[in-house]
């Protein structure tokens, strides 16, 4: 308030001065510039140092400082979508760890009275600038952190539990605690509702907050979450022993072989939802039989027209649930439909970067650990270690429900990075743990299965649901999953479906819409009763 009074006094002074000598006029951008930098220079919060505070007009392209927008994060510049006050801070979370933390605050007269925290991805280390631009563009007061270290590598975890603790939960939670105070101080009034939006590791972070900090958010949007995190690392790594290296008889090279496999999967499963359209609506129903691709006697399959017995065996293993030393499920099978992208990511070439980092820098603190030696004993070690319960597997969400929270979980059914089977696995775990059927869970927790969506963005189907700016298809809550969450929290209207859009050309939305499809919430599945008109959303029905 004191700051506001000061600003008003200043404004009055300049207005008076200008009316006297007709020379000095303080424009609204000058006012905002002054307000933002003055706010930054007087902000005082525990463990927090302000590095910069700058008002930026809509359209500004931020040149990201190398330290924050490290090349490994993939972001060098970031255009913003409305006027903001950008505050960059350093926050000490412990003597051995710290955050880079940013708040992007819309102008006071444009702010929607909502607070929103973004999350991260992979092992990063990377403040998600595109999500900051998207949510502040939608008029949220947005915050985000670098999750306790810089860059996409996990090497900062080596011999430093404090950095792992930031990564597991503390960075997001600290950012929320500080971010809410900053929001209140900047606008002179508190936010009305608080939201979270993240995908992948960001999805896991959302669930972690729901599980452990149930009052941080009124609404949480968690996509393609990296749940059961240590076991996910093992799952990613276990493709190495399954496929081996180029030259091994189990190895399936990138290119024609995987196109053949994808084609066969569609042949066996695409029509199960009522229409052959290149999209599998319910991957659970797909029990792919790779033996259909077995080479006839005398053929070696080198041209990619068939698979050898060893290759068929490897493919069958990849599409089989992965069990551990005690017979417990470590992670469910790779999901059918995702195989082309998966082959480009990690089937092709054995080791999966992220799992190597986790075993080297967290499980063993051994920079020489060799991913080719991976066995289920390593998976067991990762399960037992589970630092700061990063597994994020608590199935009791009742504190969040009792606090009035709403949770939207979405899952891409072409996800090559984290099999979507784990989403049903977790949802069913919640159902059993809380003793609630899906009708009852619907009151606060809904899981939407987005057919034809890859990991968080992109894919072959109607994957544009407004989860990120790249996958934007309108602001109305039916087409925008973040606005659907807002409507659920604030108007108590829960989404029954989310309409996804498929564009004629995904990199050029201006070329128009190919089709829209309403995605169902689990355990409903989408079925087409009018296959000749499959592009019409009304040709589909959510059935149990
Ligand atoms: C991340 O980079 C920023 C900017 O260069 C730096 O201030 C900060 O200390 C770095 N954080 C860590 C954990 O190294
Ligand atoms: C920001 O600028 C773009 C491009 O001029 C415009 O389309 C958009 O509406 C502006 N955003 C706001 C919130 O004014
Ligand atoms: C400041 O950081 C220290 C750890 O370095 C922590 O113990 C303390 O709780 C923090 N203070 C606040 C107000 O968060
Ligand atoms: C932040 O923490 C990292 C360790 O993760 C350390 O190397 C760096 O010096 C710290 N930065 C500051 C400014 O304290
Ligand atoms: C395998 O992965 C390594 C490291 O990511 C990369 O340098 C190499 O080019 C890849 N090889 C193939 C055949 O894709
Ligand atoms: C889609 O649009 C992009 C960008 O305009 C263009 O480069 C690409 O060729 C288009 N793709 C197709 C299949 O038309
Ligand atoms: Ca289909």
UniProtKB/TrEMBL annotation:
- According to its UniProt record, which reaction does this protein catalyse? feruloyl-polysaccharide + H2O = ferulate + polysaccharide
Q: Extract one GO BP annotation from the record.
A: xylan catabolic process
Q: Name one GO molecular function term.
A: feruloyl esterase activity
Task: Tell me where the signal peptide lies.
Answer: 1-19
Domain of life, per lineage: Eukaryota
Record keywords, A-Z:
Calcium, Carbohydrate metabolism, Disulfide bond, Hydrolase, Metal-binding, Polysaccharide degradation, Serine esterase, Signal, Xylan degradation
User: Is this entry keyworded Calcium?
Assistant: yes
Pfam family of the protein (one): Tannase
What PANTHER family has UniProt attached to this entry?
A: FERULOYL ESTERASE B-RELATED (PTHR33938)
State the family it belongs to. Answer: Belongs to the tannase family.
By what name is this protein known?
Carboxylic ester hydrolase
Organism, as annotated: Mollisia scopiformis (Conifer needle endophyte fungus)
What is the taxonomic lineage of the source species? Eukaryota, Fungi, Dikarya, Ascomycota, Pezizomycotina
């Amino acid at each position: 308030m004191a700051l506001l009074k000061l600003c008003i006094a200043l404004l009055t002074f300049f207005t008076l001065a200008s009316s006297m000598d007709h020379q000095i006029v303080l424009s609204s951008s000058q006012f905002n510039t002054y307000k933002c930098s003055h706010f930054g220079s007087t902000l005082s919060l525990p463990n927090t140092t302000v590095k910069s505070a700058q008002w930026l007009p809509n359209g500004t392209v931020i040149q990201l400082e190398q330290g924050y927008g490290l090349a490994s994060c993939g972001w060098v510049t970031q255009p913003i979508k409305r006027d903001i006050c950008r505050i960059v801070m350093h926050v000490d979370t412990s003597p051995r760890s710290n955050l880079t933390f940013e708040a992007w605050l819309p102008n006071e007269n444009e702010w929607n009275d909502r607070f929103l925290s973004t999350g991260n991805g992979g092992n990063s280390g990377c403040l998600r600038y595109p999500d900051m631009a998207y949510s502040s563009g939608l008029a949220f007061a947005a915050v985000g952190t670098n999750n306790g270290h810089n860059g996409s590598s996990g090497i900062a975890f080596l011999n430093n539990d404090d950095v792992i603790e930031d990564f597991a939960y503390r960075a997001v939670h600290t950012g929320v605690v500080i971010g809410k105070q900053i929001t209140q101080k900047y606008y002179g009034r508190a936010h009305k509702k608080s939201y979270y939006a993240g995908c992948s590791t960001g999805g896991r972070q959302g669930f972690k907050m729901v599980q452990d900090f149930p009052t941080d958010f009124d609404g949480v949007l968690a996509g393609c979450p990296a749940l059961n995190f240590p076991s996910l690392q093992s799952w990613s790594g276990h493709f190495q022993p399954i496929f081996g290296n180029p030259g091994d008889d189990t190895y399936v090279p990138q290119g024609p072989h995987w196109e053949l496999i994808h084609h066969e999967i569609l042949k066996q499963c695409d029509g199960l939802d009522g229409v052959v359209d290149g999209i599998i609506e319910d991957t659970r129903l797909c029990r792919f039989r790779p033996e259909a691709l077995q080479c006839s006697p005398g053929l070696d399959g080198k041209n990619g027209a068939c698979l050898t017995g060893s290759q068929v065996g490897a493919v069958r293993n990849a599409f089989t649930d992965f069990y551990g030393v005690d017979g417990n499920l470590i992670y469910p099978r790779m999901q059918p439909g995702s195989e082309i992208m998966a082959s480009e990511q990690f089937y092709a070439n054995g080791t999966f970067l992220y799992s190597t980092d986790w075993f080297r820098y967290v499980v063993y603190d051994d920079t020489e650990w060799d991913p080719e030696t991976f066995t289920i004993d390593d998976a067991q070690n990762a399960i037992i270690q589970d630092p700061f319960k990063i597994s994020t597997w608590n199935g009791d969400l009742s504190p969040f429900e009792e606090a009035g929270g709403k949770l939207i979980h979405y899952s891409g059914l072409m996800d090559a990075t984290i099999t979507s089977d784990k989403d049903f696995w977790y949802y069913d775990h919640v159902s059993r743990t809380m003793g609630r059927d899906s009708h009852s869970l619907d009151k606060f927790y809904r899981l939407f299965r987005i057919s034809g969506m890859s990991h968080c963005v992109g894919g072959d189907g109607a994957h544009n649901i407004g989860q990120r700016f790249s996958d934007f298809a309108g602001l109305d809550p039916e087409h925008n999953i973040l606005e659907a969450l807002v409507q659920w929290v604030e108007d108590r209207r829960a989404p029954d479906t989310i309409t996804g859009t498929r564009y004629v050309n995904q990199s050029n939305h201006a070329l128009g819409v190919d089709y829209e499809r309403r995605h169902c919430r689990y355990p409903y599945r989408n079925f087409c009763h009018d296959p000749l008109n499959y592009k019409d959303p009304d040709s589909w029905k959510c059935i149990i």
